[in-house]
């Protein structure tokens, strides 16, 4: 070990006792059972449903309550207490409404605090005291620790009773209960993985981002929709056109205007000038959002204006990057403007609901001066939105294209494969890449583009768009995105998006083992954890594939997909005993949980069972601990043992 490094380490551990204490501490921690990992994906702006899954730890909170109180409580009492742990502020209000008499309220406080302390003590049994302390509400640490580590041998009954009495009479019960509830939520899940697609379709991706920013331990594997937002912020005009188009299509322009403060006025002016009503561009209305005819018309016009800008902007990129292999997608060039039809793959289709008022058939890629200006203003506004900057920086800091974690491979979309199951090759400039190397190249371009928002037409910025929609992208996983066809061609045949062979081949264990090997993971123990494609349980599709090597957890938080999946999302739990897949039923509302105790039923399926309880030392975190222990042992020898 390098003497200089050890000297530096000795500054922190400046006595033999300190070194020894730390070694003992770390060794002990490394023998504790591993913490619970929680995997979610495809949140698509559904903040309420996400909150619920997060707060109930995919059923873990209720499981712990059951373990403790099943003998003495009814199902109703269990549900009631669970609702308090999930939504303490709201539940407190309800309870206070029910218990108007002060004495019964105080009695309820007294019991509830005791129950919560019991629950915390149980939920933290696999953590060190120091870790638990960090999870406690700061202002009450001392009191809670007194109650937690109650010394049963000495008769301190009146001492503990006095603590309860004082908390209540000093008006601190509500605050303490809220704090304890959040501590419980935090303890049941040690680490959260978001396997992509926070943005688009649903109404509140920004609130999800804020929740993640405040989460104690999280990582993100970018989804194709997240990358689209990163691309817009990084200066890609075509990504920017896409995010606005999708927001218009799903009646979510509030996110752009009100949440991120981006001025849509110039775009609206342009839209009013060139576009009329058009059935193909009317927004899909959000359930609880009522719009006037006038507003619907405005959105319909904006939707057309931005879609046409998008189609134009795609052309020069496809032309300057021949290795993107997207010449099939030069759609505005393929349109026969006189006959109003298009020929694709040898077949001619009539076009309907067209809105080509700003297109010059001789030069369809050309933006009108006004369109150009609108895009410049939008980009300026996007890149100067303080809130968007905060959210995008967080996505970059905690995110990556894929992640190797505790032996598993986490990836939103796919590992591009050819028909035979080999890693699919892509040429970029004059080099060819595949497999892990290709993903690493994608990621380095994305990071470069983000670090250089002033460069807008460079390869890295174009590459971010490619990751959204290109045939070899590990996030898109399809051969083409038929947005144009879905707007303008009636024949559904033209709407088909062919999937990468990966989606067929991932049923095969050998293929999955090969992929794990490609990422230097142990195929006997690792799994691939995927989001992106809704599992159609309704049609008998199984989310657990390839003899358990492949787990697909997109069950559709997104309301738009619930009718095809038949459920409202999967999540995955990985604790020291193994992995469990949880299927969630449709989440109605927080109010429903609070008043009726209905909780999204969680059907668990065992994916894997550890033969022996897995310990911290066998995890990513454990690896770091063991390295630190080894350094400290070197220090001990070098400095203190003579
Ligand atoms: O119907 P919409 O919302 O326009 O979305 C359809 C598009 O979304 C995609 O499915 C990609 O989004 P997902 O990652 O959510 O699947 C494209 O393949 C498809 O063209
Ligand atoms: Mn996706």
From TrEMBL:
Keywords: Carbohydrate metabolism, Hydrolase, Manganese. The keyword DNA repair does not apply. Its cofactor is Mn(2+). The keyword Kinase does not apply. Its EC number is 3.1.3.11. Belongs to the FBPase class 3 family. This is Fructose-1,6-bisphosphatase class 3. It comes from Paenibacillus physcomitrellae.
